[in-house]
Amino acid sequence: MRIAALLGTTLAVALNIGATAQVTQAVKLQDGTVYFVQPPDLVAATTTFNSVKEWGATYYFTIAIPEQAGEPLQRVTIKQQEGADNIRYRLKKSRAFEGTRHDRGTPIKLGEVTSDRNNQTIVVNFEQPIPPGKTITIGLKPAENPFNPGVYLFGVTAFPAGEKSHGQFIGFGRLHFYSDGGID
User: Computed over its alpha carbons, how large is the radius of gyration of the chain?
Assistant: First the structure.
């Protein structure tokens, strides 16, 4: 009797494992709009320099695309939601790579990178969609850090590949800038 129960449990576990190995399909509505099944996750937002008025900083946004995303990542928008100054960027200096800021992998070719100053939004397009299961980092170069100290929040939205894709908000990146001497 014990052998039969053990065999039955083993078989049930094996069948369940096989069921979870199936490929995840994207969500596509009747009108053709594509969604991620499981959206990417904003893992981190960091800066190389956190003093106000600092030149040469880079703002890094690290995004994990889960295996279960169902679609590759095609585009990311980064919208400044909070902060005293409207930060300007040197868009031609934008870059992306696999991995994290401190564990860089293969460079990723970017498509068009644009800025909408009125909405304080940067749009980063990838030359080729980024497949599920990857962690990537986008680096944006500001003209300089803001003049006013404080917390600056950036809303990050990810868009799957496709002509009609729906962006899904994946989190807020928080950068804190300090006045000279490191005190607000």
Answer: 21
Global confidence as pTM: 0.84
Cα dihedral 122, 135, 63, 69 sign: positive
DSSP 48: S
Q: Are strands 95-100 and 168-177 parallel, antiparallel or unpaired?
A: unpaired
Map out the domains of the chain with their CATH numbers.
24-177 (2.60.40.2230)
pLDDT in tens, 104-163: 999 999 999 999 999 999 999 999 999 999 999 999 999 999 999 999 999 999 999 988
Answer yes or no: are the C-beta atoms of 124 and 96 closer than 8 Å: yes
In tens, the pLDDT along 3-62 reads 444 334 333 434 344 433 444 566 777 788 999 999 999 999 999 999 999 999 999 999
What b/e sequence results for 99-129 when a residue is b if at least 16 CB atoms lie within 10 Å of its CB, and e otherwise? ebbeeeeeebeeeebebeeeebbbbbebeeb
CA distance 171 to 184: 25
CB atoms within 10 A of CB 58: 17
